[in-house]
Amino acid sequence: MLGEILRFLLDIFFSLLGAVLLARVWIFAVKLHPFNPISQAIYQATNWIVTPVRKLFPAASGIDVASLVVALFCAIAYLILMWIVSTGSLPSPAALPLLLGAAVVTLCRWGLNLVVWLTLIQAVLSWVNPMAAAMPVLRTLTEPLLAPIRRIMPNLGGFDLSPLALLIFAQIAMMVLNRISFSLIGV
After folding, report:
1. Residue 60 DSSP SS3
2. DSSP states of 32-44
């Protein structure tokens, strides 16, 4: 029972940290204004871990490499800790290539989780308070994902089903990635 509780707490902590780091990467990629309150909150929450790494990995080609590297290291730490809690021992050095692959898959899973939450929040706000201060930020973040879906889906006279399609796709992809991630390391 203690192992389950530890795995649950590790999953929550690292999923949130990974999602915030990936949000930082995403905010940088879509060029969201750095003085936006949401951007500021994410930067403040992650500066302690990203700023030292930025000296080694500066931004390149519109990608916040330092945040991505930190997110990858968080995924590796998460998987190692989950391994320790599950098996009671450290992973063998032979498992390190699989661990790295599982960490990349875990990063993708965290990114999809972020997509789900941002899409859900945007959908709910569009019904409850479409003029909310967070709506422009949410639109900026989700539009690159929703626009291609809108081009494919039929127009239903004012009903935008693209968020629903994105949510379904993201959930299916997370299920597949979750299975792949844990089957790679045997946890």
Report:
1. strand
2. --TTSHHHHHHHH
**Cβ within 8 Å of residue 173, ≥6 positions away:** 108, 112
Q: Which two tokens stand for residue 185?
A: 């390391």
| CA-based nearest residue to 154, from 170, 138, 165 | 165
Q: Which amino acid is located at 187 in the chain?
A: V
- Residue-wise pLDDT for 165-185, tens only, equals 999 999 999 889 878 866 775
Closest CA to 71 of 30, 24, 37, 27: 24
Q: Give the model's confidence band at 132: pLDDT under 50 very low, under 70 low, under 90 confident, else very high.
A: confident
Question: How confident is the model at residue 51, as a pLDDT?
Answer: 93
- pTM attached to this predicted model: 0.87
Cα radius of gyration rounded to whole Å, the chain: 18
> Please, which residues bridge with residue 96 across strands?
none
Q: How many CB atoms lie within 10 A of CB 6?
A: 15
d(CA 153, CA 160) in angstroms, rounded, equals 9
Domain ranges of the chain: 2-185
The residue type at 63: I
**Residue 102 has what pLDDT?**
87
Distance CA 110, CA 185 (A): 17
